[in-house]
């Protein structure tokens, strides 16, 4: 039971795989389970009270965690000490903070690995107590099920059926092992006698002798079925009636009225950014059409307004029913009063494969969103979100107001509202002094906020020596930002946007970080396609009269984010033109690369070079816009053919092995050659005669397999003579086939029942098997012949028998392992 309980815990822990980026957590969990099992065995070995059993498991778990995560602070690297306990507590606190900061799957930092190992270990303690010590295997399923509730709570798609099936098999094995020990303790199974109720007539044969039978379990089976049906009904109907599980109550008729205030909680939006950028499948996220004469703009998901010293996040959103799109108009964008604007209509269709998109990608600033479902708007940031719906598979229309600021207009902005200053210019005290000094150095000499912003952007894209690198690790601490700004200068859009927004706040410009998608690529006929590689983050700076204005510090083109565009109002003046940073009509920078020359604001984003063929012809694409690749289809077809060939290959291997073993198996049993005489076969009964016996059995098994492959009836209880007679009645054999069938049956009959050995030579019997196989093929239809060649049923029967034998051996080994502690205790 100890071994089965540990295996059941490990099997159920497989359901935690969606929570972690790598599989190394499983080995930490394996160590925890082994430690708990050892502690439980030790407590039971000394026959301590049941209340001590969990204490022993927890003590063993603590020793294991100390050895793995705090050996330097422990006594002799394994004995827990106050210093090691403090180190484990600090590490667990870091892991808890990281788990709340990241979205699943989370990186396996030491703190998170410690929490995973400790959590699985605690479940192992409970299972060991309930199933092994208290002999209550059924309630032990509750802590096992608790491990599945964690991924189900943080992910919409929960765990795969395969992972759930592995855990279910572990739990069933625990129940079977417990019942086996419970019943085995009573001795041998009591059986009943079953006799015939019929009275034989005079002269009729006597009824058969009474035979043992299993106990009548029909009543127990009926009770089990009723309990199972009732449990399934409760599991299906109860969640519909509980408002906490089903927000609208039973069948959607009731539940909460929705008039209260609810905090919107979502995973960290920047966590999934790199995952989207580094995906190799370039999956389609959405497609859209727009009537914007200046070309499509970025589609924004989030506006991150709070910097905590390590990362950018957004403040908690308090949502109420008045924020629904159907109950109120979207508020006007803040600060947009003096800049020229025009109205844009965008029709968006999100791919149905997109999961957990609870924020809508919309052009800024949305004025009206037409979409089905419970969608709401945050008045301050104009983010559109839902508490229970996802955008995957939905189509919606957005009417937005797009500003067209100019350099002179932004340079004329002088004042900021008090609420904007207090919320969007705060900088944590733990920002290093060298970062503050760097911001002042870059913007030194600029007379306006717009000139400062342009210099910051230019420093990132041109003069600062930065490079776009998707292999750079995601920033997790303030030291990572310092390293990016002062040392490595390599990163992707998250680092560029976060760094520029922070430097802008340091010099007094209200700023925040936006996240969403670039315009993507035009796929023809006025439709644009946005893929996972178009995920992007950028800074938004506030200027009175224009509101929130987008800047682009991330390099674009082939050396950066491929579909990013640089707004024309944010580009520096052309050297020698006599204009300053605040000129009224700046032109694109001459330092732009040829690949980036067409990426200015007001121009349509160019296509990626790899979307076109050598002559500019488009590469063939499927209906979703994905490029057609023959390699996956060829690989899939080859794999299918290989799988279909497995039964045929197993049948050929079995036939070859059966005849190959004929020559080698009896060799060890064969005596030394006898003296030469007139009849070697009779002089050496252990030689050719023994070969003939093995050949008879091999020929009989081979003929039986051929009969099963061709769909012919074969009763395992028939004698060789009866089976041959039955086959002769089914088949229309010629003289050669009849003689071959008779020889095979005669040889098997002699090998089974007679003291004299078969006289047929192995080569003759092998030829007779081929003759009978041809007769089988001629007696059945074409479909049965092809099934016998490609999908022989005898292979499935052989595999089933092998698995059954392996299962019996495994059960016997488990019984021996379970009896090992008892044998050890009985030793003097």
TrEMBL record:
Record SUPFAM superfamilies: Cysteine proteinases
Polar residues bias (residue ranges): 555-569
Keyword annotations: Membrane, Transmembrane, Transmembrane helix
Keyword Transmembrane part of the UniProt annotation: yes
Domain of life where this protein originates: Bacteria
Domain Transglutaminase-like: 485-555
SMART domains registered for this protein in UniProt: TGc
Protein name in the entry: Transglutaminase
Naturally occurring in which organism (per UniProt): Actinomadura rubrisoli
Highest classification ranks of the organism: Bacteria, Bacillati, Actinomycetota, Actinomycetes, Streptosporangiales
């Amino acid at each position: 039971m100890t071994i089965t309980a540990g295996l059941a815990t490990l099997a159920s822990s497989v359901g935690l795989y969606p929570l972690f980026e790598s599989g190394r957590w499983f080995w930490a969990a394996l160590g925890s389970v082994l430690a708990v099992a050892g502690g439980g065995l030790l407590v039971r070995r000394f026959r301590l009270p049941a209340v001590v059993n969990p204490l022993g498991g927890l003590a063993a778990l603590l020793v294991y965690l100390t050895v793995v995560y705090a050996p330097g602070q422990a006594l002799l690297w394994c004995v827990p000490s106050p210093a090691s306990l403090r180190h484990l507590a600090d590490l667990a606190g870091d892991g808890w903070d990281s788990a709340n900061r990241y979205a699943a799957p989370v990186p396996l930092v030491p703190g998170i690995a410690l929490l995973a190992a400790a959590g699985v270990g605690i479940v192992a303690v409970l299972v060991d107590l309930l199933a092994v010590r208290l002999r209550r295997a059924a309630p032990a399923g509750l802590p096992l099920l608790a491990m599945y509730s964690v991924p189900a709570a943080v992910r919409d798609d929960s765990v795969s059926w395969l992972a759930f099936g592995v855990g279910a098999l572990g739990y069933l094995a625990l129940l079977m092992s417990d019942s086996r020990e419970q019943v085995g303790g009573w001795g041998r199974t009591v059986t009943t006698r079953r006799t015939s109720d019929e009275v034989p007539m005079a002269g009729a044969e006597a009824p058969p002798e009474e035979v043992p039978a299993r106990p009548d379990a029909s009543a127990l089976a009926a009770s089990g079925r009723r309990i199972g049906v009732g449990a399934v009904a409760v599991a299906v109907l109860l969640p519909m009636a509980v408002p906490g599980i089903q927000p609208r109550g039973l069948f959607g008729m009731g539940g909460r009225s929705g008039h209260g205030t609810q905090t919107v909680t979502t995973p960290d939006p920047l966590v999934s950014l790199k995952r989207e950028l580094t995906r190799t499948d370039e999956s389609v996220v959405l497609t859209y059409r727009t009537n914007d004469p200046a070309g499509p703009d970025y589609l924004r998901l989030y506006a991150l307004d709070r910097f905590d010293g390590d990362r950018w996040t957004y403040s908690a959103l308090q949502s109420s029913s008045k924020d629904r799109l159907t109950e109120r108009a979207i508020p006007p964008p803040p600060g947009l009063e003096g800049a020229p604007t025009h109205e844009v209509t965008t029709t968006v269709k999100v791919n149905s494969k997109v999961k957990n998109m609870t924020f809508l990608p919309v052009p800024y600033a949305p004025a009206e969103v037409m979409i089905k479902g419970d969608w709401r708007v945050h008045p301050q940031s104009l983010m559109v979100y839902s508490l229970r719906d996802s955008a995957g598979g939905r189509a919606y229309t957005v009417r937005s107001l797009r500003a067209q600021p100019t350099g002179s207009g932004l340079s004329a902005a002088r004042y900021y509202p008090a609420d904007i200053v207090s919320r969007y210019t705060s900088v944590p005290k733990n920002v290093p002094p060298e970062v503050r000094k760097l911001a002042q150095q870059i913007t030194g000499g600029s007379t306006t906020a717009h000139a400062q912003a342009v210099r910051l952007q230019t420093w990132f894209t041109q003069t600062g020596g930065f490079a776009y690198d998707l292999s750079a690790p995601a920033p997790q601490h303030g030291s990572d930002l310092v390293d990016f700004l002062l040392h490595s200068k390599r990163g992707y859009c998250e680092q560029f946007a976060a760094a520029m927004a922070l430097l802008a706040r340091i010099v007094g410009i209200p700023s925040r970080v936006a996240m969403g998608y670039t315009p993507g690529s035009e796929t023809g006929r006025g439709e644009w396609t946005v893929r996972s590689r178009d995920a992007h983050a950028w800074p938004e700076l506030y200027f009175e009269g224009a509101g929130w204005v987008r800047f682009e510090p991330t390099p674009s083109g082939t050396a950066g984010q491929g579909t990013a565009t640089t707004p024309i109002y944010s580009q520096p003046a052309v050297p020698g033109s006599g204009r300053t940073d605040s000129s009224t009509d700046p032109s694109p920078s001459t330092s732009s690369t040829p690949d980036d020359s067409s990426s200015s604001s007001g121009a349509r984003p160019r296509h990626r070079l790899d979307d076109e063929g050598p002559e500019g012809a488009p590469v063939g694409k499927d209906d979703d816009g994905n490029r057609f690749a023959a390699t996956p289809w060829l690989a899939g077809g080859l794999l299918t053919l290989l799988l279909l060939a497995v039964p045929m290959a197993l049948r050929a291997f079995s036939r070859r092995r059966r005849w190959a073993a004929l020559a080698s198996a009896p060799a060890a049993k064969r005596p030394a050659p006898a003296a030469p005489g007139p009849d070697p076969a009779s002089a050496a009964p252990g030689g050719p005669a023994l070969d003939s016996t093995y050949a008879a059995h091999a020929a009989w098994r081979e003929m039986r397999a051929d009969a099963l492959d061709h769909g012919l009836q074969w009763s395992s209880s028939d004698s060789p003579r009866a089976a041959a007679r039955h086959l002769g009645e089914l088949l229309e054999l010629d003289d050669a086939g009849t003689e071959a069938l008779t020889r095979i049956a005669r040889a098997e009959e002699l090998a089974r029942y007679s003291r004299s050995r078969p006289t047929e030579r192995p080569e003759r019997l092998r030829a007779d098997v081929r003759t009978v196989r041809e007769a089988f093929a001629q007696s059945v239809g074409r479909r049965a012949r092809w099934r016998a060649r490609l999908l022989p049923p005898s292979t499935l029967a052989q595999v089933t028998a092998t698995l059954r034998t392996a299962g019996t051996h495994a059960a016997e080994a488990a019984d021996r392992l379970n009896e090992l502690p008892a044998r050890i205790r009985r030793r003097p």
